[in-house]
C-alpha cells in the first residue's frame, strides 16, 4: 500500500478556551487519514493560513510513506527556515504522516520507533496556591492518587495577573504583569522550605522560573535552591541566554531543564554537547513535529541528557499523545509534563475542575493510571481521533495576548 496525500485540512477548535490547531491529512486510500498538532495558540490564524496556502499545494499528491523527505521539503521550501509559525505548520503535517504510517502498519507509533522501553510514562503535575498551606493541601491531593512528581508555584510565576502598574512601579509605567525578581526569589525559597518541612523528601519537586529573572540572579537562586533537592529547576534563563547554563550548572547540583522555546537545532546542539542541561524540554510542534523531536531525543541520549517534553494546556491531545509515544520508546526519558489536559479519569478531572470537553473533541487521549504513570492506548497510529462536529462547537477567539506582557519594577519588559 502506497497511498498519496489527497487533501490537507486545518481544523481550529478551543474546547477548553485555548486555541488548538489540528491538521488532517487525507489520503487516496479510502478512510485512511492522519491527524497532527499545529497549535500555536496565540497566532493560530497565521499557522492555518500557512498550511492552507503554502504547504498544502506543496505536498498534495506526494507519497505518504516518505515522511523524512516531505519534512525536509517543507522545511527548506521557503528558503528561510524554522521559527514557531513555520515549525508548527510543518508539525501538523508531520504528525499526521506518522499517524498514517502507524495506521498502515497496524501499530502504535511507539512500535515504529523500536517498541516500548517502559510500561508507563512517569508524569509530573502542576500545583499552585495562594500560600504554602494551600500548596501542601494540593500536593497531598495529587499524592493520594499516586502522583510522585509535582511542580510547585505560588501564584503562577511570580507577578500575578495583567493590569495597571502597581504603586511600587515607576510612575507612568505601562500596564502589564509586574515582577519584583528579588522578592520572588525570597518568597520561593521560603515556600520550598515550608513544603519540605511538611511533605518531607519522598515527593519529587519541580519549579519553573519561566525566564523571569536575570542570569546573574539565576546563578545565586539555583545555588540557594540546592537545599531542597529539586528534581529539576526549569527555564532559569531566557532562550536568548542559554550560554549561561553550563556556568550555572558548574556552580550547583540542582538539575536544570530548558527548552520549551527552542525552535532550531542551532539553539540547543552545543548546550547538549556541553551537558549544560540535565533535561531537554522542547515543545514538539514548536520544533516541527515528531521527526525532529525523535532525532533530538536520540542526540540527547548520546550525551547523557534526558528528555522531559513540554506538556502544557496550549497544545492539543494529539501532541500530548506524540510526547507519550516518543517517551515510551526512549532510553533516555527523564519525566513527562502532563498539564492542562485531563485523562479520562474522574479523580483528576475533579481535582482540576475540568469538565472534559476536550475528550469529547479528541477521544483516545492516553490514560492516567492513578499510579504516577500515563499509558498510551495501543491503537494504530497516535491513537487519538478528532470528532469534527464536536470541534465546531468550540470556535477559537483572536485577542491581544496579555500574559506575555511581563514587566520589571521600572516598567521595562521582562521575558514572560
Ligand atoms: Mg515551563
Could you walk me through the main structural features you see in this protein, from its secondary elements to its overall organization?
With 416 residues, the protein is an alpha/beta fold. The protein has a domain at 112-379: TIM Barrel, CATH 3.20.20.120. It is built from 15 helices and 15 strands. The strands form 3 sheets. Strands 4, 5, 7, 8, 9, 10, 11, 12, 13 and 14 form a 10-stranded mixed beta sheet that branches. A 3-stranded antiparallel beta sheet has the order 1-2-3. The mean pLDDT is 94. Residues 208, 210, 234-235, 260 line the site of magnesium ion.
**What structural category arises from helix and sheet content?**
alpha/beta
CATH homologous superfamily label of the domain at 112-379: Enolase-like C-terminal domain
Low-confidence stretches: none
Rg (CA only) = 21 Å
Query: What is the CATH level 1 assignment of the domain at 112-379?
Result: Alpha Beta
Overall outline: globular
Strand content: 5-15%
Helix and strand sequence: EEEHHHHEHEEHEHEHEHEHHEHEHHEEHE
- CATH level-two architecture of the domain at 112-379: Alpha-Beta Barrel
CATH topology value of the domain at 112-379: TIM Barrel
Task: Report the major sheet.
Answer: 10 strands, mixed
What is bound: which ligands?
magnesium ion
**What multimeric state do the chains show?**
single chain
* Total strand segments: 15
Instruction: Provide a count of the helices.
Output: 15
Distance linking N and C termini: 48 Å
Roughly how much helix do the residues carry, as a percent range?
Answer: 25-40%
**Average pLDDT reading:** 94
Amino acid at each position: 500500500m502506497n497511498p498519496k496525500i489527497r487533501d490537507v485540512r486545518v481544523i481550529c477548535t478551543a474546547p477548553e478556551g485555548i486555541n488548538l490547531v489540528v491538521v488532517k491529512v487525507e489520503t487516496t486510500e479510502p478512510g485512511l487519514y492522519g491527524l497532527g498538532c499545529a497549535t500555536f495558540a496565540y497566532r493560530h490564524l497565521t499557522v492555518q493560513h500557512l498550511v492552507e496556502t503554502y504547504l498544502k499545494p506543496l505536498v498534495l499528491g506526494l507519497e505518504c510513506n516518505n515522511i523524512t523527505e516531505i519534512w525536509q521539503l517543507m522545511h527548506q521550501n521557503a528558503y528561510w527556515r524554522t521559527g514557531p509559525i513555520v515549525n508548527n505548520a510543518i508539525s501538523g503535517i508531520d504528525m499526521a504522516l506518522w499517524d498514517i504510517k502507524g495506521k498502515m502498519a497496524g501499530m502504535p507509533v511507539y512500535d515504529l520507533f523500536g517498541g516500548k522501553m517502559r510500561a508507563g510514562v512517569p508524569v509530573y503535575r502542576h500545583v499552585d496556591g495562594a500560600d504554602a498551606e494551600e500548596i501542601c493541601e494540593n500536593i497531598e491531593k495529587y499524592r493520594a492518587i499516586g502522583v510522585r512528581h509535582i511542580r510547585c508555584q505560588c501564584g503562577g510565576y511570580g507577578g500575578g495577573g495583567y493590569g495597571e502598574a502597581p504603586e511600587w512601579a515607576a510612575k507612568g509605567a505601562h500596564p502589564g504583569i509586574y515582577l519584583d525578581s528579588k522578592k520572588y526569589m525570597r518568597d520561593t525559597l521560603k515556600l520550598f522550605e515550608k513544603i519540605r518541612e511538611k511533605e518531607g523528601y519522598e515527593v519529587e519537586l519541580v519549579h519553573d522560573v519561566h525566564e523571569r529573572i536575570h542570569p546573574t540572579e539565576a546563578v545565586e537562586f539555583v545555588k540557594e535552591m540546592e537545599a531542597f533537592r529539586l528534581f529539576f529547576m526549569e527555564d532559569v534563563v531566557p532562550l536568548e541566554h542559554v550560554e549561561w547554563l553550563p556556568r550555572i550548572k558548574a556552580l550547583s547540583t540542582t538539575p536544570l531543564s530548558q527548552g520549551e522555546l527552542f525552535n532550531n537545532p542551532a539553539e540547543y546542539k552545543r548546550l547538549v554537547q556541553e551537558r549544560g542541561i540535565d533535561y531537554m524540554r522542547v515543545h514538539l510542534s514548536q520544533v516541527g513535529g515528531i521527526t525532529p523531536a525523535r532525532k533530538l531525543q536520540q542526540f540527547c541520549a548520546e550525551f547523557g541528557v534526558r528528555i522531559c517534553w513540554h506538556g502544557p494546556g496550549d497544545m492539543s491531545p494529539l501532541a500530548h499523545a506524540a510526547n507519550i509515544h516518543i517517551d515510551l520508546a526512549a532510553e533516555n526519558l527523564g519525566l513527562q509534563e502532563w498539564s492542562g489536559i485531563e485523562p479520562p479519569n474522574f479523580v483528576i478531572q475533579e481535582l482540576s475542575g475540568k469538565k472534559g470537553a476536550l475528550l469529547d473533541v479528541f477521544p483516545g487521549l492516553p490514560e492516567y493510571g492513578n499510579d504516577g504513570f500515563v499509558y498510551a492506548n495501543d491503537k494504530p497510529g497516535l491513537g487519538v481521533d478528532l470528532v469534527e462536529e464536536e470541534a465546531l462547537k468550540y470556535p477559537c477567539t483572536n485577542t491581544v495576548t496579555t500574559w506575555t506582557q511581563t514587566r520589571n519594577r521600572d516598567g521595562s519588559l521582562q521575558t514572560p
